[in-house]
Amino acid sequence: MIELLQEENNLIGSAAAARSLEKKEHARLLVLSDSHGNYRIMMNILMKYSPGCDAFIFCGDGITDLAEVLETADSDQNFRACLPPVIAFVRGNGDPDTFPLSFDVGKNNPLAKGLLKGTLIVPSRQILCVNNTNFYITHGHNEGVCYSKDLLGMQSKYSECTVALYGHTHIADEATEGPVTFINPGSCSRPRDGKKPGFAIITVEKDFTDTAFIKIENIFSGKPEFSVER
Questions:
Q1: Distance between CA atoms of 6 and 10, rounded to whole angstroms?
Q2: What pLDDT, in 10s, does the model give residues 121-174?
Q3: 22, 35, 40, 209: which is deepest, by most CB within 10 A?
Q4: What is the DSSP string of 66-89?
Q5: Whether pTM exceeds 0.70
Protein backbone atom coordinates (compact mmCIF):
# COMPACT_ATOMS: atom_id res chain seq x y z
CA MET A 1 0.00 0.00 0.00
CA ILE A 2 1.35 3.42 -0.93
CA GLU A 3 2.73 5.63 1.83
CA LEU A 4 1.04 9.01 1.49
CA LEU A 5 4.21 10.94 2.22
CA GLN A 6 6.19 13.29 0.02
CA GLU A 7 9.89 12.53 0.08
CA GLU A 8 12.75 14.97 -0.51
CA ASN A 9 12.68 14.13 -4.23
CA ASN A 10 9.02 15.32 -4.21
CA LEU A 11 7.64 11.91 -5.14
CA ILE A 12 4.68 10.54 -3.19
CA GLY A 13 5.49 7.13 -1.74
CA SER A 14 8.27 5.65 0.32
CA ALA A 15 11.94 5.97 -0.61
CA ALA A 16 12.07 2.16 -0.71
CA ALA A 17 9.25 2.05 -3.28
CA ALA A 18 11.08 4.55 -5.50
CA ARG A 19 14.31 2.53 -5.27
CA SER A 20 12.44 -0.65 -6.16
CA LEU A 21 10.95 1.04 -9.22
CA GLU A 22 14.43 1.93 -10.48
CA LYS A 23 15.28 -1.75 -10.95
CA LYS A 24 11.84 -3.22 -11.51
CA GLU A 25 11.50 -5.26 -14.68
CA HIS A 26 8.38 -5.07 -16.85
CA ALA A 27 7.07 -1.90 -15.18
CA ARG A 28 3.84 -0.16 -16.19
CA LEU A 29 3.19 3.57 -15.81
CA LEU A 30 -0.21 5.24 -15.80
CA VAL A 31 0.24 8.74 -17.29
CA LEU A 32 -2.44 11.47 -17.12
CA SER A 33 -2.43 15.18 -17.81
CA ASP A 34 -4.66 18.24 -17.95
CA SER A 35 -7.68 17.10 -15.93
CA HIS A 36 -8.62 20.75 -15.31
CA GLY A 37 -11.01 20.17 -12.42
CA ASN A 38 -12.53 16.88 -13.58
CA TYR A 39 -11.75 14.96 -10.41
CA ARG A 40 -14.34 12.29 -11.19
CA ILE A 41 -12.70 11.15 -14.43
CA MET A 42 -9.31 11.00 -12.73
CA MET A 43 -10.82 8.81 -10.02
CA ASN A 44 -12.52 6.57 -12.59
CA ILE A 45 -9.24 6.07 -14.45
CA LEU A 46 -7.31 5.33 -11.27
CA MET A 47 -9.85 2.83 -9.95
CA LYS A 48 -9.86 0.92 -13.24
CA TYR A 49 -6.22 1.07 -14.31
CA SER A 50 -3.91 1.87 -11.39
CA PRO A 51 -4.07 -1.59 -9.73
CA GLY A 52 -2.08 -2.99 -12.65
CA CYS A 53 0.49 -0.19 -12.70
CA ASP A 54 3.70 0.47 -10.79
CA ALA A 55 3.54 4.28 -10.82
CA PHE A 56 1.03 7.05 -11.48
CA ILE A 57 2.39 10.12 -13.29
CA PHE A 58 0.47 13.39 -13.60
CA CYS A 59 1.83 15.99 -16.03
CA GLY A 60 0.05 18.99 -14.56
CA ASP A 61 -2.95 21.32 -14.84
CA GLY A 62 -5.20 19.68 -12.30
CA ILE A 63 -3.38 19.68 -8.96
CA THR A 64 -6.71 20.24 -7.22
CA ASP A 65 -7.84 16.91 -8.68
CA LEU A 66 -4.67 15.16 -7.54
CA ALA A 67 -5.16 16.67 -4.08
CA GLU A 68 -8.68 15.20 -3.99
CA VAL A 69 -7.23 11.82 -4.93
CA LEU A 70 -4.75 12.02 -2.07
CA GLU A 71 -7.44 13.12 0.39
CA THR A 72 -9.66 10.23 -0.70
CA ALA A 73 -6.77 7.79 -0.34
CA ASP A 74 -6.10 9.10 3.17
CA SER A 75 -9.68 8.44 4.28
CA ASP A 76 -10.56 5.37 2.17
CA GLN A 77 -8.24 2.40 2.70
CA ASN A 78 -9.81 0.40 -0.14
CA PHE A 79 -9.10 3.13 -2.66
CA ARG A 80 -5.63 3.67 -1.25
CA ALA A 81 -4.86 -0.02 -1.69
CA CYS A 82 -5.50 0.21 -5.44
CA LEU A 83 -3.05 3.07 -6.01
CA PRO A 84 0.47 2.34 -7.34
CA PRO A 85 3.28 2.63 -4.75
CA VAL A 86 4.78 5.75 -6.39
CA ILE A 87 3.13 8.97 -7.61
CA ALA A 88 5.09 11.56 -9.62
CA PHE A 89 3.54 14.90 -10.56
CA VAL A 90 4.42 18.37 -11.78
CA ARG A 91 2.96 21.86 -11.82
CA GLY A 92 1.03 23.06 -14.86
CA ASN A 93 0.58 26.67 -15.94
CA GLY A 94 -2.74 26.70 -14.07
CA ASP A 95 -1.42 25.11 -10.87
CA PRO A 96 0.06 26.63 -7.68
CA ASP A 97 3.53 25.67 -6.45
CA THR A 98 2.10 24.41 -3.13
CA PHE A 99 -1.28 23.02 -2.11
CA PRO A 100 -2.77 22.39 1.36
CA LEU A 101 -3.85 18.91 2.44
CA SER A 102 -5.61 17.86 5.63
CA PHE A 103 -2.85 15.41 6.62
CA ASP A 104 0.88 15.92 7.11
CA VAL A 105 2.03 14.78 3.68
CA GLY A 106 5.41 16.51 3.99
CA LYS A 107 6.59 15.37 7.40
CA ASN A 108 9.47 13.39 5.82
CA ASN A 109 10.37 16.12 3.35
CA PRO A 110 13.01 18.60 4.57
CA LEU A 111 11.90 20.96 1.78
CA ALA A 112 8.56 21.33 3.60
CA LYS A 113 10.15 22.52 6.84
CA GLY A 114 8.97 26.02 7.66
CA LEU A 115 5.80 25.53 5.61
CA LEU A 116 2.35 24.97 7.08
CA LYS A 117 1.64 21.41 8.18
CA GLY A 118 -0.02 19.51 5.35
CA THR A 119 1.62 21.49 2.54
CA LEU A 120 2.12 19.57 -0.70
CA ILE A 121 5.04 20.89 -2.74
CA VAL A 122 4.27 20.91 -6.48
CA PRO A 123 7.53 20.84 -8.51
CA SER A 124 7.86 22.24 -12.01
CA ARG A 125 9.96 19.25 -13.13
CA GLN A 126 10.53 15.72 -11.94
CA ILE A 127 12.85 12.86 -12.87
CA LEU A 128 11.70 9.30 -12.33
CA CYS A 129 13.89 6.26 -12.88
CA VAL A 130 12.02 3.12 -13.96
CA ASN A 131 13.75 -0.12 -14.93
CA ASN A 132 17.01 1.83 -15.45
CA THR A 133 15.27 4.31 -17.79
CA ASN A 134 15.16 7.97 -16.75
CA PHE A 135 11.91 9.83 -17.42
CA TYR A 136 11.91 13.64 -17.54
CA ILE A 137 8.48 14.89 -16.44
CA THR A 138 7.22 18.43 -16.96
CA HIS A 139 4.06 20.22 -18.06
CA GLY A 140 5.66 21.82 -21.08
CA HIS A 141 4.53 25.45 -21.00
CA ASN A 142 7.93 26.70 -19.83
CA GLU A 143 9.57 24.72 -22.62
CA GLY A 144 7.30 26.08 -25.35
CA VAL A 145 6.07 22.66 -26.45
CA CYS A 146 3.20 24.16 -28.45
CA TYR A 147 5.83 25.45 -30.89
CA SER A 148 8.81 23.11 -30.59
CA LYS A 149 10.16 20.28 -28.47
CA ASP A 150 13.76 21.44 -28.91
CA LEU A 151 14.15 22.94 -25.42
CA LEU A 152 12.43 19.98 -23.79
CA GLY A 153 14.79 17.68 -25.67
CA MET A 154 17.83 19.65 -24.53
CA GLN A 155 16.69 19.58 -20.90
CA SER A 156 15.99 15.85 -21.10
CA LYS A 157 19.42 15.08 -22.54
CA TYR A 158 21.12 17.35 -19.99
CA SER A 159 19.28 15.44 -17.24
CA GLU A 160 20.36 12.09 -18.77
CA CYS A 161 16.75 11.16 -19.56
CA THR A 162 15.77 9.23 -22.68
CA VAL A 163 12.00 9.73 -22.32
CA ALA A 164 10.23 13.07 -21.85
CA LEU A 165 6.65 13.14 -20.54
CA TYR A 166 4.70 16.36 -20.94
CA GLY A 167 1.21 17.81 -21.29
CA HIS A 168 -0.09 21.34 -22.01
CA THR A 169 -1.02 20.82 -25.69
CA HIS A 170 -4.00 18.55 -24.80
CA ILE A 171 -3.05 16.41 -27.82
CA ALA A 172 -1.88 12.81 -27.42
CA ASP A 173 1.38 12.23 -29.25
CA GLU A 174 4.52 10.12 -29.31
CA ALA A 175 7.65 10.95 -31.29
CA THR A 176 11.32 10.06 -31.14
CA GLU A 177 13.82 12.75 -32.05
CA GLY A 178 17.45 11.79 -31.65
CA PRO A 179 18.05 10.08 -28.30
CA VAL A 180 14.79 11.27 -26.69
CA THR A 181 11.27 9.85 -27.00
CA PHE A 182 8.57 12.45 -26.31
CA ILE A 183 5.21 11.26 -24.98
CA ASN A 184 2.13 13.40 -24.36
CA PRO A 185 -0.80 11.42 -22.90
CA GLY A 186 -3.32 14.03 -24.10
CA SER A 187 -5.97 15.50 -21.83
CA CYS A 188 -8.28 13.26 -19.83
CA SER A 189 -10.82 16.09 -19.67
CA ARG A 190 -10.39 18.74 -22.40
CA PRO A 191 -8.87 17.28 -25.59
CA ARG A 192 -8.00 19.34 -28.65
CA ASP A 193 -7.43 18.72 -32.35
CA GLY A 194 -10.60 16.64 -32.64
CA LYS A 195 -9.32 13.88 -30.39
CA LYS A 196 -11.20 12.09 -27.62
CA PRO A 197 -10.25 12.60 -23.98
CA GLY A 198 -7.57 10.13 -23.02
CA PHE A 199 -4.42 9.08 -21.22
CA ALA A 200 -1.52 6.68 -21.69
CA ILE A 201 -0.12 3.50 -20.22
CA ILE A 202 3.60 3.02 -20.78
CA THR A 203 5.23 -0.39 -20.48
CA VAL A 204 8.92 -0.15 -19.61
CA GLU A 205 11.05 -3.10 -20.63
CA LYS A 206 14.82 -3.44 -20.37
CA ASP A 207 15.59 -2.14 -23.85
CA PHE A 208 12.47 -0.24 -24.92
CA THR A 209 9.24 1.45 -23.90
CA ASP A 210 5.82 0.81 -25.41
CA THR A 211 2.96 3.30 -25.20
CA ALA A 212 -0.76 2.50 -25.35
CA PHE A 213 -3.07 5.49 -25.71
CA ILE A 214 -6.49 4.99 -24.11
CA LYS A 215 -9.46 7.07 -25.27
CA ILE A 216 -12.48 7.84 -23.11
CA GLU A 217 -16.13 8.07 -24.13
CA ASN A 218 -18.91 9.59 -22.03
CA ILE A 219 -16.62 11.27 -19.50
CA PHE A 220 -19.49 13.13 -17.82
CA SER A 221 -21.96 10.24 -17.68
CA GLY A 222 -20.70 8.68 -14.45
CA LYS A 223 -19.95 5.51 -16.44
CA PRO A 224 -17.10 6.38 -18.81
CA GLU A 225 -16.05 3.85 -21.43
CA PHE A 226 -12.40 3.13 -22.23
CA SER A 227 -10.79 1.68 -25.34
CA VAL A 228 -7.31 1.52 -26.87
CA GLU A 229 -6.70 4.20 -29.49
CA ARG A 230 -6.12 2.63 -32.91
A1: 5
A2: 999 999 999 999 999 999 999 999 999 999 999 999 999 999 999 999 999 999
A3: 35
A4: HHHHHHHHHH-HHHHHHS-S-EEE
A5: yes
